[in-house]
């Protein structure tokens, strides 16, 4: 686990304590068998080329262009037997520079060189450990996390993923109901191997001010999603970045079967964000996406609007939970309204599973 600052030492102690406890249990053969037999590991290789041409006279950099190779080794153990099962997850990541230069850097693929900030390092990497406890249908994880929740979505759109340090409880005790709660303390960005405090996404067009506060070492979240049937799910999620904002997110996801491999999917989202501390956050975000699917094809239309004194608030470096969010923009500035038209094709329908196409 990457623990780089005093603020996250508590997490190191808790995680190590759990691992030592697991080792000190004197696991019986059946318990050890479940722990090992249910384990799985995988190695993922990513080759990433990124080219962005700014093509404007006022740009401080004419283009960004880098090429890199990444490797992700993931391990997930099973759980020991007993009322409370214990397990361990691990992730190791390595990024290698294949091509870059000081005048073309900044794509987010590679870590910057501290001695020469405009140049990329030849390689970078990190390792994360996660202790996990399971009781009944609930799992508590402590350590390295990659949450994908409406209030916080770890970014994985470059060579290596963004990771967090914290705790996350996921509970499935009630049929159809998924409950999540937890706290995040620090983040390692997608182009970094260092842990740092959390901050808010800002910018002049977003009109968000922290009121002198730069960082936070605490993000609390909780939420529940209820699946009414195979076609309808509703949810509520709450997030609080200490010193910056509080956020309430409501979701409705519905699929209407139309017969003969056809369906109409409706994805509606509403978020209300307000200030905390000395910040000025005040935003209402509404989004709706309608997608008609037939025989491997999908046609979608989306609408998104921002209102209030500021744009949409979310943790810096993460993906915002917005229907019109794309890799090059979130369309979440103050008073911004956006539409999108989208087409997808899944080649599995013509006998090529794993290959998809999307344009919008």
UniProtKB/TrEMBL annotation:
The keyword Cell wall biogenesis/degradation does not apply. Keywords: Signal, Transport. GO terms for cellular component: membrane. It comes from the Bacteria. Residues 1-33 form the signal peptide. InterPro entries: OM_porin_bac, Porin_dom_sf. GO terms for molecular function: porin activity. Belongs to the outer membrane porin (Opr) (TC 1.B.25) family. This is Outer membrane porin, OprD family. It comes from Ectopseudomonas chengduensis. The lineage of its organism: Bacteria, Pseudomonadati, Pseudomonadota, Gammaproteobacteria, Pseudomonadales.
